Amino acid sequence: MTRTLVQHHTNAGPPLAVASDPSTRARDWAEIQERMLVPLYEAVYERLEVRAGTRLLGLGCGSGLALLMAAGRGARVMGVDSDEELLTLASARLGAAGSASRPSGGVLPTSRMAEAALPGGVPYDVITALQPIGCVAGDAKGLA
Description:
Strand order of the largest sheet: 3-2-1-4
């Protein structure tokens, strides 16, 4: 390429620092990247007819945006994820959206997934896995 098309910088400066703090990475995902998935979540919920009265379980719920959108349609939601930082964000999102008279739902770590069962053995109407399930952040235990 010619110099007119590409500027050559003699001093690029120090490399950008990559966020290594798990809570920072989780917040960045929730505030920046996850928003790109809103059209997907909307299409899925429209296709599956998620509405008031729907009982939805979100596996790998992440920071809870998909759960929040389902709750906004009137669904009763429960999310499960292995990432504690993302669960903290999801819990805050659902807590802010709910009220004492109409709770939006809840979230649980995968280690407590059995607690996600609805009272009386009532089944969920919809179970989603909108995020990859398995190894995250170097978790090699899932490969065994």
